[in-house]
Amino acid sequence: MGQAARSHANDFVIEELNRVLNLDYDAIKAYEAAIERLHDPSYQSRLESFKQDHVRHTQNLAAIVSEYGGEPASHADVKSVLTQGKVVIGNIVGDLGVLKAMNSNERVTNGVYEQALSKLASKPDIVRVLKENLTDERRHKDWIEQALKAS
Ligand SMILES: [Fe+2]
Ligand SMILES: [Fe+2]
Known about the structure:
The protein has 151 residues and is mostly helical. The chain has five helices and no strands. One fe (ii) ion binds at residues 27, 50, 54, 106, 109, 137, 140.
């Protein structure tokens, strides 16, 4: 992207991706709280790997925002998008309660990624990255749902 990078179309991309970035930062905080709260070490290590996926998402999304001439969001939104955020999770007692809260968070992240994909469908470079990230989000949600069923 050269000099003329700043345009109305770019502003739309930047705004949309920064919304998703805020959410991924939000999810990282929620995962940190969940990992701290959980007792089962196998749940903890699995959630740690999911948290790392979200960290990677913040990096690949920030790269696109910069490419489009924007300032990438660098933290969660003040108004948390996730209903089961850090504070709520910090007060939950029991591994199942924590997993249920994370399941509801992953429903939100999956939904936000799907929305972003449909809004940015005309940009193949962005669609590729959003699809990669959404594949992770689906895997997170599926694993948590299975863990809840198995318990
Ligand atoms: Fe993510
Ligand atoms: Fe996720």
